[in-house]
Amino acid sequence: MRQALIIIDMQEIFFNHPQNYLFNRNQLVQNINILIKQAHEKNIPVIFIQHTDPNEQDELFEGKDDWKLHQNLLFSSDDKIIRKSKWDAFYQTELLDYLKSKKIEQLIFAGVQTEFCLDTTIRAAYSLGFQNNLLFPNTQSTINGSVLQADDIINHHESIWNNRFLTVINGEVKL
């Protein structure tokens, strides 16, 4: 089964400002880098999704420091970057066409934020026919919300996604 690794919104905004610090952010970057390294070794396409706001005043406007992909990610020039402006990485982007052109059947998800862009994209992928997707432990995160703490948001979403929209792999981060 042809796979692709999709890394959503791992941008500097979540590392530059304490109010935006991701839960377990150092472990998150380390685990995503493990996935990236393994994907590169196995010739699995790596796709970075980068949220881009059309408003020049927004911190995620193209070119601003917070907009950039996190500097510690193992990005390769062979990796694909797809910019999005909505929570769904498929909405008005080239993602679906790109996956079809590569004959991808299974998506491996990682990134942020659990309850926003990650959740929306995971559900959209399932509805678009990608129904055997994977998520590895500690490869996605979010920030504390006004009602729930980040770890509760993560656990809740993983329990909803597992065996419905994807399979949450227990154990080691290994492709």
Automatic annotation (TrEMBL):
Residues 4-131 form the Isochorismatase-like domain. Transmembrane segments: none annotated. Keywords: Hydrolase. InterPro entries: Isochorismatase-like_dom, Isochorismatase-like_hydrls, Isochorismatase-like_sf. Coiled coil: none annotated. One of its GO terms (molecular function) is hydrolase activity. Belongs to the isochorismatase family. This is Isochorismatase family protein. It comes from Niallia alba.
